[in-house]
Amino acid sequence: MTQETILEHTDGNWFGEDVATFGDRLAAARNAAGMTQGQFARRLGVKLTTVKGWEDDVSEPRANKLQMMAGLLNVSIGWLLIGEGEGVEPVSEEEAVPGLEAILVEMRDLRTDLKLKLDQMARLEKKLRLKLKDIG
C-alpha cells in the first residue's frame, strides 16, 4: 500500500486502526517522546536491533518490556497493541514528510549501527588473528 493510498484511506490519519501496526504506533510514540531508537533501547535495557525489530513489525516485545515502554512513552498498553486507549495524536500529512530533524535522527541511528558493526568486525578480526597464530 503506498503512502498516498494510506492517506486517502485514512483521511490523512495514518494511525487509522485498519492501517497502523504496533510498530507504527511504537515509532510514533517514541518520536513524540523525543527519543531516538538508540536512546529508547538504552532506557529499556535492550539492543538497538531489538527496538528496530519491534518498529519494523518483525518481532514483538515481552509483556514486561511492553509495560515499561508504555510507561516511558506515556501511552497505554492497549493503544500500543491495538490503537485503543491513551496514545499520541495522529500526525498530519505535512508532519509526515521528514524534515531536517528526522534526517539528523536517522543519520545518528545509522552512525550507531555502523559503530556496532565496526566493533563486531574488530572482535572477529581479533579471533581470526588468534586462530591464525595457533595454526602457524
Which helices and strands, and how do they pair?
Layout: H1 3-9, H2 22-32, H3 37-44, H4 48-55, H5 63-73, H6 77-82, H7 93-96, H8 100-135
Helix pairs in contact: 3-4
How would you explain this protein's 3D organization?
The chain folds into two domains: 95 residues, lambda repressor-like DNA-binding domains (434 Repressor (Amino-terminal Domain), Orthogonal Bundle), CATH 1.10.260; 39 residues. Helix content is 67%, strand content 0%. The protein has eight helices and no strands. α3 packs across α4. It is elongated, with a radius of gyration of 19 Å.
State the domain count. 2
Task: Determine the mean pLDDT.
Answer: 79
CATH level 3 topology of the largest domain: 434 Repressor (Amino-terminal Domain)
* Proportion of residues in helical segments: 55-70%
Broad structural category: mainly alpha
CATH level 1 class label of the largest domain: Mainly Alpha
By CATH, the superfamily of the largest domain comes out as lambda repressor-like DNA-binding domains
Q: Which of globular, elongated, flat, extended, rod-shaped describes the shape? A: elongated
> Which CATH architecture of the largest domain is right?
Orthogonal Bundle
Main sheet properties: none
Cα-based radius of gyration, to the nearest Å: 19 Å
